[in-house]
Amino acid sequence: MKLESFWQATAPVFNGAAVGELPSKADVVVIGGGFTGLSAAYNLALAGVDVVVLEAGEVLSQASGRNGGHCNTGVAQNFASLVESVGLEQASIYYHAYTDAVEYVQSIVKQESIDCDLIRTGKLKLASKAKHFPSLVKTYELLKRTVDSNVELIDASHIRDEVGSDAFHGGLLQKGGGQMHMGKFGIGLAQAAIAKGAVIHAHTPVTALQQIDGHRYTVTTSRGVIDANRVLLATGTSDKGPFSWFQRRIVPVGSFIIATAPLSDAQLKQAFINNRTYVTSLNIGNYFRTTADNRLIFGGRARFAISNPTSDARSGAVLRQGLRELFPTLAEVDIDYCWGGLVDMTADRLPRAGEQDGLFYSMGYSGHGTQMSVYMGKVMAALLTGKPVSNPWQRSNWAAMPGYFGKPWFLPVAGLYYKAKDKVS
101-105, long-range: CB within 8 Å, 24+ apart, which pairs? Predict the structure, then answer.
């Protein structure tokens, strides 16, 4: 078993990083070489803007290359609960933003001819307990009536037509969801940005930011200094660098994933009948999907811990046991890859994007970021160039989390809380 991301290990080699010295100035400096930063660079370059991307490590080395491979419509939260907290009008705006985001990902794949195994077979939320199904019914009725007439409810008597397991008691199908090979897509996006004129510097961590006036900043890196007319932070959960204001507002939560050896056609047909993306209804549940080469990608919050090799391996053992329990017929399948990543979680699980002290930013995707990060790259590119655009995640106030200063000391306590909640609810 390899302790590395399947997406990164099987992606094309990225050979487009710039070599030599940094430029002394740029119209826009983008900090972060994940989906948000690459999408912003792509769109800025399309508009003829001089844009430089600074990535502390390798392109796609963090969340964009270490996730579960889902690209789904629908919000991260239960839609009915979101309506209760923000109202139907605002919740509908959020919901439609995710639909637009998936459509935008598909449009880039088509326009740039990115070979990334993109398919759109829908997302199925599975009721892990019989008493979870009424909540799915409530959400289904609200979605059907308000924002998604194409949603479908599957009761317990028909769930085996969707997934070959006795562990589930019905499901909610959102048909617009998709999946793709994250490494292939990300490298394709990076190459497309470079082809349009963007410059990407890998292994160039930012060490200081100094505001000159308005949006203009001096960006200091390990390899030199750039005078930027505008700066976009696409840093996600980064706990390194001069980003303390954001670090107090985002909690890095570990998410862990295993990838099996290729399954037989018979195993796939029996267990994953319609080849969707799947997520269970537990607070500490699982998400899974198959790949173009017949592997099962199976993940979840196996442990409330930060990702590192030791933590990833321990989490992999937990996930393997979970896989055996949900799909006994796959109990003996080999595990080829195991990895972890960090989810940039906000307190309300809603992203944030806008401007702070002259810096532009988009982050906090809260485990639902593949599609939204790519979409927000386009939105932020428009904001950076002064074009009219609707920003669904602009909020008037983004308060720091009380008692939190960038180190998630409370994760083990949160894990115990949610495990206890899953036992009784």
Answer: 101/371, 101/372, 101/374, 101/375, 101/376, 102/71, 102/72, 102/73, 102/176, 102/177, 102/178, 102/371, 104/371, 104/374, 104/375, 104/378, 105/71, 105/178, 105/180, 105/185, 105/370, 105/371, 105/374, 105/375
Contact 405, 249 (CB under 8 A): no
The SS3 assignment for 124 reads: strand
What's the rounded Cα separation, in Å, for the pair 32 and 8? 17
Rounded Cα–Cα distance for residues 275 and 164 (Å): 11
Report the distance separating Cα 417 and Cα 20, nearest Å: 50
CA distance 115 to 180: 9
Q: How many CA atoms lie within 13 A of 303 on its CB side?
A: 19
Task: State both tokens at 237.
Answer: 């959960």
**pTM passes above 0.70:** yes
DSSP per residue, 298-328: EEE--SSS---HHHHHHHHHHHHHHHHHH-G
226-274 pLDDT, tens per residue?
999 999 999 988 878 899 899 889 988 888 999 999 999 999 999 999 9
Kindly give, in sequence order, each residue whose CB lies less than 8 Å from that of residue 399, ignoring residues fewer than 6 positions away: 249
Question: Tokens for 215?
Answer: 């949006």
Q: How far apart are CA 361 and CA 355, in angstroms?
A: 6
